[in-house]
Amino acid sequence: MSTAANLLSWIASANDHPDFPLQNLPLGIFSPQGQSPRGGVAIGERILDLKVACEAGLFEGEAKAAAEAASGDSLNAFFALGAPARRALRAALLELLGEGSPALDRMKALGEALLPAMHDCQLHLPARVGDYTDFYVGIHHANNVGKLFRPDNPLLPNYKYVPIGYHGRASTVCVSGTPVRRPVGQTLPPGQEVPSFGPSKRLDYELELGIWIGQGNKMGDSIAIGEASEHVAGFCLLNDWSARDVQAWEYQPLGPFLAKNFASTVSPWVVTAEALEPFRTAQPPRPAGDPQPLPYLLDAQDQAHGGFDIELEVLLLTAAMREQGLEPQRLALSNTQNMYWTVAQMVAHHSVGGCKLQPGDLFGSGTLSGPEPSQFGSLLESTFGGKQPLTLANGEQRTFLEDGDEVILRARCRREGYASIGFGECRGVLLPAKA
Amino acid sequence: MSTAANLLSWIASANDHPDFPLQNLPLGIFSPQGQSPRGGVAIGERILDLKVACEAGLFEGEAKAAAEAASGDSLNAFFALGAPARRALRAALLELLGEGSPALDRMKALGEALLPAMHDCQLHLPARVGDYTDFYVGIHHANNVGKLFRPDNPLLPNYKYVPIGYHGRASTVCVSGTPVRRPVGQTLPPGQEVPSFGPSKRLDYELELGIWIGQGNKMGDSIAIGEASEHVAGFCLLNDWSARDVQAWEYQPLGPFLAKNFASTVSPWVVTAEALEPFRTAQPPRPAGDPQPLPYLLDAQDQAHGGFDIELEVLLLTAAMREQGLEPQRLALSNTQNMYWTVAQMVAHHSVGGCKLQPGDLFGSGTLSGPEPSQFGSLLESTFGGKQPLTLANGEQRTFLEDGDEVILRARCRREGYASIGFGECRGVLLPAKA
To answer: What's a single GO BP term from this record (chains A, B) (predicted)?
Structure first.
């Protein structure tokens, strides 16, 4: 088992690493100091430089082709190769980076050039995003938000049949660490009939799972539910920044637009399906009486293994907390078990009418809140529409985000008998609106 | 004046050409027979091959840089150069292709290699579409459709303040001539509470103006209304195919998704602002009592010249008509004067919150219906929601599109004292749903 707890790496920092033990091996794009972007693999506190590894001849066969595709300045070509190539690369990496590596001497001789320290490297967006689609599969979020926007009609009749999604903006998907500027826009102040214009006053985060698409399909074709998982290249965290006041005024009848398109932040590492295998679950149970998915969304294997048990966390670090030397404070802890639809159902639905999915397309799950307030994945929910401020440990209060606030998403998988793995962080600090 | 009626070309087919006289000079991407895609300029029944023209040294200075940027397999690099480069190229083309061209002998010596016949060439999508945004600025369409979906509330309160738009699917923007497959999907039959799954039964076209974005802006910046026109690289026709039954069931609360993302067809030629200059108008007058645009959408120059007088036409060619040897039948004749918001207002609004616009991004205007039934730009409107079938000249009836129907969009500009120019065609034939 490539995910067993007892697998160790000869790179000491990988063993018991909270995010990147040998069992994880997520891929990303990074620049070593003073050098150009290239593909790499996170291992403990280091990154395996795939460009250097390829040049040193560390891979053979299908793994070599996969490593070469992943060694450029984006992972799109690697995603396009599909799941078998990814698995071949993983097998080779487990051998190279594991205890008793047959290439240990050659790798040690390459030193920092092959395995630079992660903190010396700059991390980039892992792929050029072709299209970005945001789903809405967090049913507790849909219920909570529905109550605020439509008190008498929170969950619309289509919700339990259709994996609801909408097209987002690809050009402003940015990597963790990119500062986000508070947007200006039109809003309708309460009780007014004429909109105001200015900086958003209700700026929010959204805690989401991100899904990177692999091979995809041609226009006019579709991806069957039974094959959908093979078209997923990997997973990340996604913060779908949202200007709630802009959203409330603009979103009818065609959906969110400027309220969401100023920034969406993703974590830099692409965690693979193979690394997540021990944390698979059945599709989370649905409330009694809910309808069966329509046949094109129903697959026995997906019902049995299409869910994930991934802890998702939002933390906040305010400007004052930074000055006071405080650690980020957790605002919510949720889980991917709150997804009403599986990732395979999202892929099958998206493509069923012939929409072309391409390597490097990005899906967001939608906000994954749990049923309890401590599990709410947005401030809109945690403050009940801005009506009940949160009081932070240092005495500060928040209804929505203030300038200088840094939002940090984390994800971790734990299971008895398996090494824990993590996603790394998805961070973004909020800059003041432009004067 | 580079647009005066009396300018003639030494290429005979250009003079009095309904679409592509010397005054137009639209750019596109094409493949000469057996050769790779490259940039070209439509002139009469021919295409000036920019790759061959560059290799022959026909350009100098800024025009040379522009022609080189436009000679690759997409126009993105050319769009990125911005308006001054585009104007320099136009000035050079007018001289090269006009009567008394100083390079006449060299060009004639190059013959078909420089100026292949358009009907021998394959036309491609002119640019890689980064993001595609569809607006909703046709106020008569918004009213007509609003009445069908929300009889008591056709035009929402935000319509006259916000240039409503939503993100569409970039991966399925395709060039004229690409067959479109009827999508399958979920729909809710009238009177039912459980959705059905199958081929869309209410497949429709939408008559839109397409807008190609030029230089664009960085994430977090915005484009002021006074500068917005400089960020438009050109114009085309756009058919935003729509599955109305899918749309009605899925679109709440986040907007159209599978109902629109299976295909959007554009015409291959990018008509420039310079060619359209004589057909500029003031922003079309708004109904008395309508609010002023907010200051970020208000610019004196745009108010005076931000409109266009472009005739827009939808034609239908059914399978039976093709067999009978009939010409396509006009279904509607409309005009860009039906835009409630100008193109500059769309650009300024889209970017005001910091959304990054990039060279090759595509906007659709939304369906540009006029107030009269003969001006309705979709079957949804022309058949009053499918309730009043259209009877065609050959006796066939249509509520929505049938397999084998070909939808053809055309656009033409006419003004006394100026040469007429056209956009060429935007065609697509509907294939049956996949078995």
So the answer is: L-tyrosine catabolic process
